[in-house]
Amino acid sequence: MKMTKTDFDELKRMLDQHEGNYDRAKRTYIEYGLTLKRYCFDCLYAVKDKEAKQRWFDKVYQYLDDTHIYTALKRILLSEEETP
Description:
Blueprint: H1 5-16, H2 22-31, H3 36-45, H4 50-60, H5 66-77
């Protein structure tokens, strides 16, 4: 994974602050035929601290693209069995 540990830890912290139930949301996405990739990015976009999220995006998009971000999101949000 090309994302730095610092940026990965910040992403994890932002996602951990979410008050929702990730497992229930994930099941709902699957029931509606949505992809796990969509689920992962929607979880990221749902982060409530908009300023922190924007600073994070501004930093990581200088050296990463969405494929690298998705790899990090999969590590945080999906089990090994769910990882495509």
